[in-house]
């Protein structure tokens, strides 16, 4: 079923959005309270990270009960109120489905451990572990009680991979998806969904930590089709997005082309690895513009030609803030934030805004390792020390790369804890909150620019539906692309650097009109000088 390509999604990390009870953890009532703010921004749908019961080893991605609300976040009645209030305002919800693994606290795993064979077949148990490396460090297998067997955990040791080969597992998981669909949600984000298809015989794979052995396996497409048919497939306009770890364009076309009946769109992360030295996350390096530009072009054109559909984003709960990675944030925060926004909101795909992005939030600038909570960061810090890095070196890397960078409390105002909670926040607010917060930013250049981008996508079919082709591919500072729909054309120029750059404008655009720019008074002529971090979109009818 076709989705509405004019829609824009806003991601809320519930734990850090708005606390109304004073327990230091955000809650569903906090989301209800702030829906009018999001309505003002203009978004259509909210993706919520997991709010289900969980021991919180991985902040809710370790689910112990799939069809309930964690009491820290509220009740099922709050959830229903949230859906209903959203509907009144024209805002729908997309829930996070973590179906690759469950918490080892889940009753399925507990029953399996206690010897129940029916539930043992829910997990991936083997007599001998393979050499695969867990995404959170260490070997991906752990002893299964005292049975002498091992269970697979591609993530934390408390996140046991589920056995999708077992039809009883698929039946349970589809039931969960339907449970939430029947509650009125209009979208799902499927966590690491391209890892669900495991081979029958699992083998050592020394390449890339074992990823090729379990990523994008062909059977994954079969499972997605089964899920589509058993759950959301017949719902008009239902929004589904798969989080695709280390994937390929070929697979993402298969995952998202409408006639495949799998998902509506896919997240990939290649463009967020352009500041990884030698492909390693735990390193520090300036971003590689050539790489970023070429990835955007290959994916933009590849998905356009193959009739696939991208989810467009720079920020989420697993990424440091894009402003700290791609922009001279000290001198050009406003210009950089608006340019980054235009570079995806005018592109082909569905744009996602991560909470706080619309007010230009930045990394928290913590002073000590004690401020970090995330299991991945804590593990990585220890591994770096073990490998011989000094505490200062390891800390500098955590500061730049930790997932906690984006999980800090939403900055509502300049009062204590950024107006997020009256209690003690589960994670400290970023240092910038006295200056950067909703109160100071709401009439400001970043928020209002986002409002305009969202409005333009709704009004202009060329933005929502047009094709994508690369432009100015030789430029060493401008990422540019064209969109086409019928006779109409749109040229989007994005200067990714703090220096001015002169460009010759193609003759056909010289009498075009400025659709949007983050600098006032730009006149179109044969040559244009783009200012630092300028974005400029020229429409030719
Ligand atoms: C996804 C989530 C991440 C989580 C992991 C394991 O990558 O975005 O936050 O830790 O899956 O569920």
From TrEMBL:
Keyword Cytoplasm: no
EC number: 3.2.1.93
Cited Pfam families: Alpha-amylase (PF00128), SusG_C (PF23915)
Gene Ontology CC entries for this record: cytoplasm
UniProt keyword annotations, A-Z: Glycosidase, Hydrolase
Ranges of residues in domain Glycosyl hydrolase family 13 catalytic: 11-407
Superkingdom as given in the UniProt entry: Bacteria
GO biological process, one term: trehalose catabolic process
Name of the top EC class for this enzyme: hydrolase
Keyword Hydrolase: yes
Any one GO molecular-function label of the UniProt entry: alpha-amylase activity
Sequence similarity: Belongs to the glycosyl hydrolase 13 family.
Protein name stated in the entry: Alpha,alpha-phosphotrehalase
Name of the gene this protein is made from: treC
């Amino acid at each position: 079923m076709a989705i509405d390509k004019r829609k824009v999604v806003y991601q809320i990390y519930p734990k850090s959005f708005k606390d109304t009870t004073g327990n230091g953890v955000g809650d569903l009532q906090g989301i209800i309270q702030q829906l009018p703010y999001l309505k003002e921004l203009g978004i259509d749908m909210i993706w919520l990270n997991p709010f289900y019961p969980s021991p919180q080893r991985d902040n809710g991605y370790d689910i112990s009960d799939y069809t309930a609300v964690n009491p820290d976040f509220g009740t099922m009645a709050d959830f229903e109120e949230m859906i209903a209030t959203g509907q009144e305002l024209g805002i729908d919800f997309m829930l996070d489905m973590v179906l690759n693994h469950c918490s080892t606290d889940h009753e399925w795993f507990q029953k399996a451990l206690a010897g129940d064979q029916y539930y043992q077949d829910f997990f991936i148990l083997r007599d001998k572990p393979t050499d695969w490396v867990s995404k959170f460090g260490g070997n991906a297998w752990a002893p299964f009680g005292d049975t002498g067997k091992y269970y697979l955990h591609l993530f934390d040791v408390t996140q046991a991979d589920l056995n999708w080969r077992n039809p009883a597992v698929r039946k349970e998981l589809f039931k969960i998806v339907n449970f939430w669909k029947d509650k009125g949600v209009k979208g799902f984000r499927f966590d690491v969904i391209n890892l669900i298809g495991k081979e029958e015989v699992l083998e050592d794979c020394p390449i890339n930590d074992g990823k090729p052995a379990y990523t994008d396996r062909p059977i994954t497409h079969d499972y997605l089709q089964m899920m589509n048919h058993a759950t959301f497939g017949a719902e008009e306009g239902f929004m589904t997005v798969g989080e695709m770890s280390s994937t390929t364009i070929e697979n993402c076309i298969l995952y998202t082309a409408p006639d495949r009946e799998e998902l509506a769109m896919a997240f990939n992360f290649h463009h967020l690895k352009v500041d990884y030295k030698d492909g390693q996350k735990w390193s520090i390096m300036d971003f590689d513009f050539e790489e970023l530009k070429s990835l955007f072009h290959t994916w933009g054109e590849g998905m356009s030609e193959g009739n696939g559909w991208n989810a467009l984003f720079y920020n989420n709960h697993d990424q440091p803030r894009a402003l700290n990675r791609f922009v001279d944030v000290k001198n050009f925060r406003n210009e950089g934030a608006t340019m980054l926004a235009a570079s995806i909101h005018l592109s082909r795909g569905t744009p996602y805004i991560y909470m706080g992005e619309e007010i230009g939030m930045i990394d928290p600038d913590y002073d000590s390792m004690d401020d970090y909570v995330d299991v991945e960061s804590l593990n990585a810090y220890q591994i770096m020390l073990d490998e011989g890095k000094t505490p200062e070196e390891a800390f500098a890397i955590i500061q730049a790369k930790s997932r906690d960078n984006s999980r800090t409390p939403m900055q509502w105002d300049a009062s204590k804890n950024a107006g997020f909670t009256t209690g003690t926040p589960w994670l400290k607010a970023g240092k910038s909150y006295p200056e950067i917060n909703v109160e100071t930013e709401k009439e400001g250049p970043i928020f209002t620019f986002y409002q305009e981008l969202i409005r333009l996508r709704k009004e202009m079919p060329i933005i929502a539906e047009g094709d994508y082709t690369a432009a100015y591919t030789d430029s060493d500072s401008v990422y540019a692309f064209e969109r086409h729909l019928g006779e109409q054309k749109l040229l989007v120029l994005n200067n990714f650097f703090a220096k001015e750059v002169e460009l010759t404008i193609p003759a056909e655009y010289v009498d075009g009109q400025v659709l949007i720019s983050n600098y006032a008074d730009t006149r179109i002529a044969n040559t244009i000088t783009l200012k630092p971090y300028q974005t400029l979109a020229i429409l030719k009818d």
